[in-house]
Amino acid sequence: MIFAAFTRLQFPTISRSRSDEGGDIHNIYSLVHPKVNASLVNSAIGNLSTWPAYGAGQTFIPKHKPCSESDIRSTRSGKENASTVSKPRYLEKLESYLRRELQSLDSAKVISQELRLQPYRDVFDYFMEDFKTYKPLLCAIKNEYEVTLAYQREQIRSLEPLKAMIVSISERCDKKIQEIFEKERLEVKTLKMEKHNLLKVIDILKEEKISLQAQVTKLQEEMEKVYLMYRNECDARKLLISDINELKHQQEDLRLFQDHKEEGEDPVTLAVALRVARDDLTKTQVLLNTLQADYGDVVPRRDFENQEKELAACVEKLEVLQKDISQLETEHKSLLEINQQIVQERDSFSKEVDDLQRSRAPTPIWEKCVDILPEVFQQRSELSEGKSTEKLVDMLLTELGRKILKEKDVFPGMGVGDNVPLHLRHEGPVKNLRLSLKEVYGMVKEILKEKFAIDQQKGRRSSLSEFMINYLQKKFGEASYEWSYTLHEMCRICLINEQIHSFYRVLMDQMDEDLYYDLFHVHTHLLKELTTAENTNAGSMTREQFRLHLRKAFPSKTPDEIQELLDIADSQLKPEDENIHYKSLFNEDEEGNPCRFILTLRNQFSAERKQYLKELRSKLGNNNVTPKELKAAFQSVDPAIDDKTLERYLARVFQVAKDQLEVTKPMSLKQLFQNLEGVNIRKTGSGVQV
């Protein structure tokens, strides 16, 4: 760059031609007068030598500072060689200095780019010092380059940690890939062994099939022989019966002949009459069979006319329903407009709900919510009667949560970290399937039913989170995480449906799976007991029988609780019924909402748990509780509890292994009872096997 600028300074005409071509440099070097023809002009006064760039002269520069005044004077006093065109002395000194500096640097073992750049900087500084006319411009150029170089150094220095981080990430990724490969290798080895064993089983089954086929062939041959023997015997029997009948007819004819002979009637006439009567009987039988075959499925005219009347009534009803549908469509459009307004006001309502939860007013005015959200409370007016404030808030939050969830198109992935549940370990966005409550309840029942069957086969209970994602992957393939995230969110926000929300708590390990089954299948044991005891399979029994089976199924219930269940069963009886139709007491709707009888059973079960926890709390103080103190409280409240069950309770409450209970730190009373809420604790002998 420096030498290019130096060349342009000596040849302004060439520089002007290049500037005309590029358009960026115009008349930069017009300061030099074109009539100046001196071969060497003092640079201190702004004039340059006209030495061409292809000159071949070579000189030596003494070992002192280049571009000094003595060098310039000696250059001016020397004679010019008329026969040879040589380089300017100043240029030769600069080149010689630069060459020596570079040679001295090349002799070193380690040379950085900064060291090689320094001689060029010195030459450029000498050049600026002697050419004072161009010094400001050259100094500005140098400063700009220095600033740019410094900026680039800072950029490189800031990227160094990123490079180290990339290297460490690459090493971790390689390690994970290696672990995955090792795991896959073990799985492939296991699968190969399993395949080999299955091939052996297949060979054994093939041999058994061939053996069984041979046995079947032999049995078929024997059966053919037996069939032929029995057929011959059957034919002989038919012939014998025919002969017996013929003998009977002859005997009858002979008897009739003797009788008529005694009465004086003609036996020939009677025989002919008997033959004609038998022929008429045969024709009549054939005609009767024909009529039954032709007109057996014919409908009477009276029934046909009744069906026509019913069809006409159904057509009229269909027309009325179509008109109602048109009206409902119009109302639906208006409701959609109202829904848009509700969506805009949703954020303010959510904030208001949070304020209400924090304030916890003793007597909330729910009529305000009815005025603002009529579709939430008026549709559930029967359910909201007699509900507590907590239940009403759950209803409001559930409806708002469902509206918010319907507007979401995707869920953000939670990643694949160890703190993320197994059924939510996914990177990237996940599509929202917008499932209805009926579909969610159906899928929850299906998952639990399949898991219960597999756990029964294996003899141990697996994690619900792991089982659910495996089951969804088998059933839906690539869309498994869409179902998993949608089910998770629907179960999380559905606070009014205790069964669905408890499924979410089991997924998040906030509730024992045993407690879930005991709470929501408490009626299964009773239904099984009633079905086994009934012989007629009519689904009904007397009130006294129902009371006895209630007492047998729930021996720990008090007489008042048994009477409460009997009263509910009596309230569902019709006036003409004498027996209790117990099967109708165990119905549930499509969204999992139980009938009154099942709900009462669950409430009694929850009341027993609350009473048990209340008795435990009375045995504990207000300070932090150790495992030893909690164990003593359990033994005091329930003396018949066994050590194995007690250790399981303690390990679950303190969330540690059984062998670490002795070194576990005390837990606050509040946290302790929060953990106990999710543990399936019950008094010995009061549980029901589901």
Which stretches of 5+ consecutive residues score pLDDT under 50? 1-83, 380-384
Give a count of the beta strands, DSSP E runs of length 2 or more: 2
Any idea what the shape is?
elongated
Number of domains: 4
Provide the succession of SSEs.
HHHHHHHHHHHHEEHHHHHHHHHHHH
Instruction: Look at the structure and give the mean pLDDT.
Output: 76
Strand content: under 5%
Number of helices: 24
What share of residues is helical?
A: 55-70%
**Biggest sheet descriptor:** 2 strands, antiparallel
* Rg value: 52 Å
Question: Largest beta sheet: what is the strand line-up?
Answer: 1-2
Q: What would you call the structural class?
A: mainly alpha
Euclidean distance between termini CA atoms: 91 Å
In short:
With about 700 residues, this protein is an all-alpha fold. The chain has helices spanning about 1-10, 10-20, 70-75, 90-105, 115-130, 135-265, 265-295, 300-360, 365-370, 375, 380-385, 390-405, 435-460, 465-475, 480-495, 500-505, 515-520, 520-535, 545-555, 560-570, 595-620, 625-635, 645-655, 670-675; strands spanning about 410, 430.
Keywords:
two-stranded antiparallel ribbon, 24 helices, 69% helix, elongated
How would you describe this structure to a colleague?
It is a single chain. The protein folds into 4 domains: 2-133, no CATH class; 141-284; 408-510, no CATH class; 522-677, no CATH class. Helix content is 69%, strand content 1%. The chain has helices at residues 2-10, 12-22, 69-77, 89-106, 113-130, 135-263, 267-295, 301-359, 367-372, 374-377, 381-384, 389-407, 437-458, 464-476, 480-493, 498-507, 513-520, 522-533, 543-553, 559-571, 596-619, 627-637, 643-654, 669-677, and strands at residues 410-411, 430-431. Strands 1-2 form a two-stranded antiparallel sheet. The two termini are 91 Å apart.
